Amino acid sequence: MVLSPAGDFDHDRAPGDSDGYAYAPADADSRITPAGFAEAVLDEATAPTLHAVHAGVTEAAAV
Hints:
This protein is an alpha/beta fold. The protein has one helix and five strands; from the N terminus they run ββββαβ. A three-stranded mixed sheet has the order 1-5-3.
């Protein structure tokens, strides 16, 4: 399993801000905060839900 930001990191927000995350197809206009992406990585490391896939991660509010 591989996780990637679906678009780009949201550089305008404070480093600790996170609105959660969702898995989504790649979209250059989507954003994810570093904290939100880290949350997705840690969740998958501790309780895997994805197997043998490459998943994009975006803000939950964007889906």
